[in-house]
From TrEMBL:
<keyword id="KW-0732">Signal</keyword>
<keyword id="KW-0472">Membrane</keyword>
<dbReference type="InterPro" id="IPR003609">
    <property type="entry name" value="Pan_app"/>
</dbReference>
<dbReference type="InterPro" id="IPR001480">
    <property type="entry name" value="Bulb-type_lectin_dom"/>
</dbReference>
<protein>
    <submittedName>
        <fullName>G-type lectin S-receptor-like serine threonine-kinase At4g27290</fullName>
    </submittedName>
</protein>
<feature type="domain" description="Protein kinase">
    <location>
        <begin position="512"/>
        <end position="677"/>
    </location>
</feature>
<feature type="signal peptide">
    <location>
        <begin position="1"/>
        <end position="23"/>
    </location>
</feature>
<dbReference type="GO" id="GO:0030246">
    <property type="term" value="F:carbohydrate binding"/>
</dbReference>
<dbReference type="Pfam" id="PF08276">
    <property type="entry name" value="PAN_2"/>
</dbReference>
<keyword id="KW-1133">Transmembrane helix</keyword>
<keyword id="KW-1015">Disulfide bond</keyword>
<keyword id="KW-0547">Nucleotide-binding</keyword>
<keyword id="KW-0723">Serine/threonine-protein kinase</keyword>
<keyword id="KW-0430">Lectin</keyword>
<dbReference type="GO" id="GO:0048544">
    <property type="term" value="P:recognition of pollen"/>
</dbReference>
<feature type="domain" description="Apple">
    <location>
        <begin position="337"/>
        <end position="418"/>
    </location>
</feature>
<keyword id="KW-1003">Cell membrane</keyword>
Length: 677
């Protein structure tokens, strides 16, 4: 009898040992997990157990990648209640609660707070890194760690909210690199208004993803189709979330909210055995929330980065000039409600949607109608930009957190504007202005013709060379380091530089429509235009602040126009109209070099041979400017953004003459600018 019991207990022991070996990815009511033991997911990807961070004796229950050499914790259970010894044990209770207890005295330090009515419960570590509680025959989870993330989002995890169950998955950073307790930063799905991801620093917004536009988040144009992961955004009555999945399950990728307040995407490089940082949010200064405040637009290519949107002006110009943008911008012309219209702005990160109104199925026309009829509606736009566009956003407050991307990134938004600001909408005042302008232009042309012939004659008589040494100081406040020296050889200015008439330019650029704006240089905005003959041009509208006289300006332009080299952008004319001076350049269809070399996808288009050709071309252009040209010019701002590319990807240096043309004549704002590259 006694022998039988012994055999029975022995076999049950044997059985339980076998059971443990067989079921290493599970914890059952009878088999708790004690400190020093581990649970490994069935595919061997993740491991669950107790760990201590570097330089710490505290013991936490966590999940990490099993296969890789760098210990990477993706989830922590008791982040606020660590053990200070190895007495911890993870237990599954009969009623489906997962608890961390002191195995010596039974005190509970952490609990999943879950209950279940299922029979024969198990807690299982899935190969996705998800720790779930379920009945052994039931596919439904009564609790899962993916619903209670720490600081890491793994493939398959939903980042967002379930409106039915109330589950809200919020990432919260570790306090420091070696302390898993709650840090200052959280990353969550905000559902006031249309959903958008928000990174909070305490209770203030640090970064905003912008609303989903069907392809990606409005504020993350870098989120594109890629070989590592796919992604989706789901928004319906039940839930709203963003999630991603691996294309190749062996290339790990994760999103982690680091203690410094940056959400980083990493992917594991098996060859070098390090995590490669793919993208960050916030990625730059313009990604920080509300940098330029109401109606200010942030553009990292500008310095300073904030400017008022077109047709807006700083609310407090003095503060604005000293780079204090906290008062934002206001319309130059106040609204008048009934007769207002809308102006389209392109290449924009849509403003904060927290207080916006939306309708997912409304057309843009209907959207405009509704916005038009409500005087407090400030702007409208599509929600989904795929195809012809769909859905309707309406904004009723000042537009916050706008940035300008330009190019193909960013979206269109239509902002309410007083009728007198509506460019081409055919108001009498506008027509009168254009008429006067063309009259002025004809007059100027006439005067120039006369002065030209007179000057030519005089020059021929004199036939002597004038050498002028000009030492021009541009940035008084920056001291001698930014002084600029030129040798100007002023010989026969016999060159026919077309003077364009202002109506031609207005027509070509569609009255300087914001959608034609292709950039903003230090000296003013640049617009794309098409002349009647179909020739494409780029019009640089020099800031009106320049106090240079028209004659001086003309002379300068003629000098610059003489600089002809295949690696310099060709100036084809200018236009003078009252205070306004414009330069007309040939249009470069392939944009500037920075759009290639700083972009992963575009960068692939430039193979080594092309790159070498571009480098060579830039060097030739520079050599010409420095040594071979009539004017000796030091560019001072040579950067990828100033290298334009023609149809055949030949490099052309731009902006080379303007520094010289405007020395000493800049506004205070421009002179404070840090110069040069
Ligand atoms: C666990 O219980 C033992 C015995 O009461 C105690 O000495 C120890 O400090 C406890 N550990 C923790 C982390 O509470
Ligand atoms: C560990 O924690 C327990 C409970 O908080 C405490 O009573 C004990 O003194 C601690 N032990 C050490 C070595 O700090
Ligand atoms: C479980 O409930 C307790 C008490 O309400 C709470 O302090 C704790 O944070 C909860 N645990 C989890 C994992 O939500
Ligand atoms: C999972 O839950 C749903 C609804 O709660 C239920 O209809 C379904 O039968 C459950 N699945 C299993 C395998 O029990
Ligand atoms: C990583 O590389 C090693 C050796 O090169 C290989 O054995 C292993 O399968 C690779 N792991 C993954 C996840 O690709
Ligand atoms: C959204 O717009 C569509 C089409 O105009 C309309 O039928 C629908 O009722 C609107 N939904 C809401 C909630 O306003
Ligand atoms: C305009 O829209 C606001 C915000 O939705 C609303 O409170 C107000 O009643 C509307 N006014 C009119 C005249 O419809």
């Amino acid at each position: 009898m006694e022998g039988l019991t012994r055999i029975a207990s022995l076999s049950s022991l044997l059985f339980s040992v076998l059971f443990i070996c067989d079921a290493v990815d599970k914890i059952t009511v009878n088999t708790p997990l004690t400190d020093g033991n581990y649970v490994v997911s069935s595919g061997g990807t993740f491991e669950l157990g107790f760990f201590s961070p570097e330089n710490s004796i505290n013991r936490f229950l966590g999940i990490w990648y099993k296969q890789i050499s760098v210990r990477t914790i993706v989830w922590v259970a008791n982040r606020e209640t660590p053990f200070n010894d190895t007495s911890g044990a993870l237990k599954l209770t009969e009623n489906g609660n997962l608890v961390l207890v002191n195995s010596t005295n039974g005190v509970v330090l952490w609990s999943s707070n879950s209950t279940s009515v299922s029979m024969s419960l198990v807690a299982q570590l899935l190969d996705s890194g998800n720790l779930v509680i379920r009945g052994s025959s039931d596919g439904n989870y009564t609790w899962q760690s993916f619903d209670h993330p720490t600081d890491t989002a793994l493939p398959g995890m939903k980042m967002g909210k379930n409106f039915v169950t109330g589950v809200d998955r919020i990432l919260c950073s570790w306090k420091t690199k070696n302390d898993p307790s709650r840090g200052d930063f959280t990353y969550l799905m905000d559902t006031h208004g249309y959903p958008q991801h928000m990174m909070m620093s305490g209770s203030s917004v640090r970064f905003r993803s912008g609303p989903w536009n069907g392809l990606s988040f409005s504020g993350s144009p870098g989120l594109k189709k890629n070989p590592i992961y796919t992604f989706q955004f789901v928004f319906n009555q039940q839930e709203v979330y963003y999630s991603f999945d691996l294309i190749n399950p062996y290339i790990y990728s994760r999103l982690v909210l680091d203690p410094d307040g940056v959400l980083r995407r990493f992917s594991w490089n098996n060859r070098t055995q390090v995590w490669t940082n793919l993208v960050n949010a916030p990625a730059d200064n313009c990604a920080l929330y509300g940098q330029c405040h109401g109606y200010g637009s942030c553009d990292t290519n500008n310095s300073p980065i904030c400017s008022c949107m077109d047709k807006f002006k700083p609310k407090d110009p003095k503060d604005w000039l000293s780079a204090d943008w906290s008062n934002g911008c206001v319309r130059k012309t106040p609204l008048n409600c009934k007769s207002d219209g809308f102006i389209k702005y392109s290449g924009i990160k849509l403003p904060d949607t927290r207080n916006s109104w939306y309708n997912l199925s409304m057309s843009l026309e209907k959207c405009r109608e509704i916005c038009m009829t409500n005087c407090s509606c400030m702007a409208y736009s599509n929600i989904d930009i795929r195809g012809k566009g769909n859905g309707c956003f309406l904004w009723f407050d000042d537009l916050m957190d706008i940035r300008y991307y330009g190019g193909n990134d960013g979206q269109d938004i239509y902002i309410r504007m007083a009728s007198s600001e509506l460019g081409s909408s055919g108001l009498k005042k506008k027509i009168l202005r254009v008429c006067l302008a063309s009259l002025g232009a004809v007059l100027i042309l006439f005067l120039i013709l006369i002065s030209f012939t007179w000057k030519k004659k005089k020059d021929r008589e004199k036939r002597q060379k004038v050498q002028q040494q000009q030492q021009l100081t541009r940035e008084g406040s920056l001291g001698s380091s930014s002084r600029q020296f030129y040798t100007v050889e002023n010989d026969n200015p016999d060159i026919d530089l077309p003077l364009f008439d202002v109506t031609t330019i207005l027509k070509a650029t569609n009255y300087f429509s914001p959608s034609n704006k292709i950039g903003e240089g230090g000296f003013g905005p640049v617009y794309k235009g098409v002349l009647k003959e179909g020739k494409e041009i780029a019009v640089k509208r020099l800031s009106k602040y320049s106090t240079q006289g028209n004659d001086e300006f003309k002379n300068e332009v003629i000098l610059i126009a003489k600089l002809q080299h295949r690696n310099l952008v060709n100036l084809i004319g200018c236009c003078i109209h009252e205070e306004e001076k414009m330069l007309i350049y040939e249009f470069m269809p392939n944009n500037s070099l920075d759009t290639y070399i700083f972009d992963k996808d575009q960068g692939r288009l430039l193979d080594w041979q092309k790159r070498f050709r571009i480098i060579n071309g830039i060097a030739r252009g520079l050599l010409y400017l420095h040594q071979d040209s009539r004017l000796r010019i030091i560019h001072r701002d040579l950067k990828a953004g100033n290298i334009l590319l023609d149809v055949d990807m030949n490099p052309k240096i731009s902006d080379f003459g303007m520094a010289r043309s405007f020395v000493g004549n800049e506004t205070e704002a421009n002179t404070r600018r840090v110069v040069g590259t």
